[in-house]
Design brief:
Blueprint: H1 27-41, H2 51-62, H3 67-77, H4 81-88, E1 102-107, H5 110-128, E2 134-135, E3 141-146, E4 158-160, E5 163-165, H6 170-182, H7 198-205, H8 221-233, H9 275-279, H10 288-295
Parallel strand pairs: 1-3
Antiparallel strand pairs: 1-4, 2-3, 4-5
Helix pairs in contact: 1-2, 2-3, 2-7, 3-4, 5-6
The structure holds FE2/S2 (inorganic) cluster (FES).
Amino acid sequence: MSGDNYGIQTAAGHLTVAAESKEPYAADVLAGLHEDAAQVVAKYPQKRSALLPLLHLVQSVDGYVTGRGIDFCAEVLDLTTAEVSGVATFYTQYKRHPNGEYTVGICTNTLCAIMGGDQIWDEVSEHLGIGHDETTPDGKVTLERVECNAACDFAPVVMANWEFFDNQTPDSTKQLVDDLRAGKDVKPSRGPAKVCTFKQVSRVLAGFHDGLADEGVGAGPASLEGLKLAHDRGWTAPDGKSGETATDDQQPEATSNETAAGRHTSTDSAANAPDEAVDDKPATLFDENEKNGKDS
Ligand code: FES
């Protein structure tokens, strides 16, 4: 699949699926996708619930959500292509054009911005010659402005394929993208000792673990400062038994588990019934009779 449209995406382009992305999968690739999809779908009572991981699975193969990937998800999950596209265009982690091998996200949310994130963005964007959601011509780096990464204590923060690079500067981030483009090993500030590729990470997000989730340090020194202070001063968290407790008249009223006749809670509606209950038979992925009956 050609990467000719790296770096030339426009807002309109995000909604346009390139014709090449509709090329059929090779037979062995398609067989592998079906095999993996069956494992993902089996985790959910309703197969349509598997759409988000399946879109990541498509990205792990194609590098973005292709037209053929949308067709695949729709067929496997018994959805329309419009329903699949509606989801794929809603979440920013799903790419509608070829993505780089590394997504480099520069946090420009409030705290990071004032701590230098805006400056990092300006300099790195100029250094690479690309803007938001654009990719270097070599297909290595897709640059993104990202919102708060819940790592404000390490501001300004940059992420490469969702691995943290803390306390960044314009120079350190330019070095990071240069190293990524040169194929050098880069080590995140926390977590695993390497940054996996976009396709590798997409497979993890689809639910296939790579064994790296617990590797490395999870919380850095800044995040642990409060805990250290508490230890130094002998503070402990309330155990729920001592200190202030709610008086009887502050206790919430006991409520019945039963729902009034004709009413549904958010989880017991017919729409949320497992596929087995709806069809009175086990959900299957590739039930050709069911598919043919639906299509006819
Ligand atoms: S504002 Fe950047 S991590 Fe929170």
